[in-house]
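PROTEIN DESIGN WORKSHEET
SECTION A - STRUCTURE
LENGTH: 135
TOKENS:
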């Protein structure tokens, strides 16, 4: 015989049965009422947590899009500035290195500085995430 819709059987371990019974006593409820109330409260909590998690994920996705847009603007500008400075420095004639060597040295110093900043903050570089050692 199948139970009616309003009747559901639930098996609880001993510890959980004791907690439900204690809740029922504290609240002046029957075991069935206490079980229904606790299931209701648990579902409400779980649904709110799920909604909150979804909103948190959406917020993170928005923040990542914003960061990417900033990097898309700042990255090329920083690299372009470095290239221009290396070009100008090599054009003055006072250096004993070529423009390419100066640019390579600037990139090395920038990489080292970036790794230092990431390390100070306890963050991993993209190279560390892929198993490559940087620097």
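SECTION B - SEQUENCE
RESIDUE ASSIGNMENT:
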């Amino acid at each position: 015989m199948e139970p009616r819709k309003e009747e559901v059987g639930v098996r609880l371990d001993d510890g959980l049965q004791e907690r439900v019974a204690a809740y029922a006593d504290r609240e002046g409820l029957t075991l069935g009422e206490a079980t229904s109330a606790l299931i209701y409260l648990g579902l409400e909590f779980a649904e709110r947590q799920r909604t909150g998690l979804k909103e948190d994920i959406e917020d993170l996705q928005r923040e990542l899009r914003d960061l990417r847009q900033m990097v898309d603007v700042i990255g090329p500008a920083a690299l372009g500035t470095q290239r221009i400075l290396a070009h100008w420095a090599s054009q003055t004639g006072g250096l004993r290195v070529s423009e390419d060597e100066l640019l390579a040295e600037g990139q090395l110093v920038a990489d080292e500085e970036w790794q230092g900043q990431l390390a100070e903050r306890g963050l991993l570089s993209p190279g560390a995430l892929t198993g490559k050692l940087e620097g």
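SECTION C - NOTES
The helical segments are 14-27, 31-91, 99-120, 126-129.
The chain has a mean pLDDT of 80.
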